[in-house]
Amino acid sequence: MSNPYSEALGATLIERAIRERIVLVGVTFPGSDDEDTEASLDELAALIDTAGADEVGRLIQRRDRPDHTWFIGKGKAAELHELCLALDADTVVFDNELTPGQQYNLERLLGRTAIDRTAVILDIFAQNASTPEGRAQVELALLRYRLPRLRRGAAAKLSQQRGGVGMRFGGGETRLEVDRRRIMRRISALEVELDTLARTRQLQRQRRDQSGLSSVTIVGYTNAGKSTLLNTLTDAGVLTEDRLFATLDPTTRRLALPGGEPVLLTDTVGFVRRLPHGLVESFKSTLDVATRADQLVHIVDASAADPDGQIQAVREVLDEIGAASVPELLVFNKADLAPLVAKQLVADHVGSVAVSAVTGEGIDDLLRILGDRLRALTRTIELAVPYERGDVIAAIHREGEVVSTRDEDGRLHVLARLSDASAGRLADFVVAP
What we know:
CATH architecture of the largest domain: 3-Layer(aba) Sandwich
Largest sheet: 6 strands, mixed
Mean pLDDT: 82
Low-confidence stretches: 1-16, 153-161, 169-176
Number of domains: 3
Structural class: alpha/beta
Strand content: 15-25%
Shape: elongated
CATH class of the largest domain: Alpha Beta
CATH superfamily of the largest domain: GTPase HflX, N-terminal domain
């Protein structure tokens, strides 16, 4: 029997002939101002564009707290209805997360689909998921999001018939046919599938750990240039596009630092402000690479409107997945687009570096600093290796940095910087820690 959600995911690759017309709604709560709300709506507009729709208007309200029924006030909701009619909008997107009840009430009042920022991000992930694990992770997150929002009333039928942004899985009639029990069964099946894939990924990590190579993970805000940097450093050939969440799946490549020592460099999915918790949960097995890294390379777009806000957003996600304690190197990318800003950011963040992954500016400085940081995590050890053990000598060169060599007592004495894992495997040859 075919799976309607998997079929719906396959349909995400089909371009819609007519782009949806979207009205954005933001609310300014105490502790923020209208400028903050506008900046957040600008980012939401970029998300909407990535999802394949167009902003045709926006509406902002100040409130002390969300309205229980409409999120915005009743009068503002009526104003929103008139705005949608005047602009012939297809969908309303709130910058804040709506409760199932608020979403239901808004759709009844507006006569059109009402979704939130979370649904838009899930929609984009659904479009970009390409590997079996990525597709399963996104589908699981979306099903968990949709489960409490199942409705069988008239408003639900309206939203089910529409499809479009936020409706990638189970859109149209398919969603009407799926009841709570079937969704729960599908969620259980996806959890089992992801557990199996996670065990496979764990075995791959164990093999990498046995290699004795240091692990470096690239993290950062979406579209900050992580994949471009990976390609520049390793010729990885990873897809790079000037759009949000262009790549979701981690890619690991071997990188030789200036001292000759090799490391494993991994690119990860980009983050964004208020990244849906369900996505973080579903992608934990993928994001786990950051928690196990020896060093994080945190890429920041120096040309962005609010680089410090992006840094904070990434750090919040790192804290959520348990990677906040991993050493972090801030790298301000796109220095070619904003050289003065990049210079000031480096001055404000001691120990950081400015680069351009496109032109190569600053890359040598980045590699030097990264090498220095990783060497600080290793021990300098002396080993005495019989000349006939070429395999051991090769392993030392492969896994660490050779400082010096000398002949003594018919053996080759090697002074090398090695990780604890490598030193443990070569313990039989260690003469001076």
